[in-house]
Amino acid sequence: MLELRDVHVVHKARTGGLFSRDRVHALTGADLTVVRGETVGVVGESGCGKSTLARVMVGLQRPAEGTVLLKGQDLWAGSDARRRDLVGSSVGMVFQDPSTALNRRLPIRRILRDPLDVHRRGTPAQREERVRELLGLVGLPAGVAGLLPGQLSGGQRQRVAVARALALEPELLVADEPTSALDVSVRAQILNLLLDLKERLGLALVFVSHDIQTVRRMSDRVVTMYLGRIVEQAPAGDVPLGARHPYTRALFSATPGLISPINPIPLVGQVPSATRPPSGCPFRTRCWRADGMCETAWPAVQRDDRHLYHCHHPVAAGATDLELIQERPV
After folding, report:
1. How far is the CA of 102 from the CAs of 83, 97, 158, 161, 325, in angstroms?
2. Which of 15, 39, 55, 139 ranks highest by number of CB atoms within 10 Å?
3. Same-domain pairing of 107 and 236
């Protein structure tokens, strides 16, 4: 459905004065494939490039290098009109905050009709019928169509955002932190809605979140990012004990669960700056297993069963958090 090949995204940032421009390495060498019908969860600390990856997937961010293939077609090879048609007919996106993602001056009917009008889907009467169908699909009454976003609750606004993302019947839905701006009481409702729609409509789903346990429960595959790089991809059922990258193990060890005890693997130091990332492996400055090899070369991808990871010194599959904590020098 979607393939990223060696994708790089670099931003210019003015951080050192009026005439000084640093380059922010938001995404570096990203390789990722999303197949039809699967759910891919993307996790990592704030600023690791998760949202940039999502924007690349839906054609909102043009890579500085690399290739983005959507249904086998190069997303950036043709005209803007061709890319708009390809993305509009294949991909929908749900943004983090529905309060800013929806135009507060437009009624819900207009918000849901806009994609249909832009892409000239059906007759005016068919578009109105599609609006009613979309509201029902996300569990909202037909009367919501005449309301403004400000007259809805946060959960209802996010349901409208999901409905808009589905307006053109996409095959891939990208959800970028879709519950982080919502009350805890309604987060589960939106997550259940996304899973239900995925099954009913046969969607592929990319779910970006800092809620690691939720990503593991919702996903078929978990993608771990660190400082703009994808460091590991693993089946969700094998995470965390089957994860091979030290960062993935440390990330999951610090996340509370309902049953399992918490044995966080301590990481020393701050995340390095994305304007001046470390040489070699970017995680080496915080990794207890790092040596000179990690300083000089970015690890080539290694494959272990269904795992893909970049690490010179991977963790043994099945190692417990306590065993990894004991590895650290005192």
Report:
1. 23, 9, 9, 7, 46
2. 39
3. no
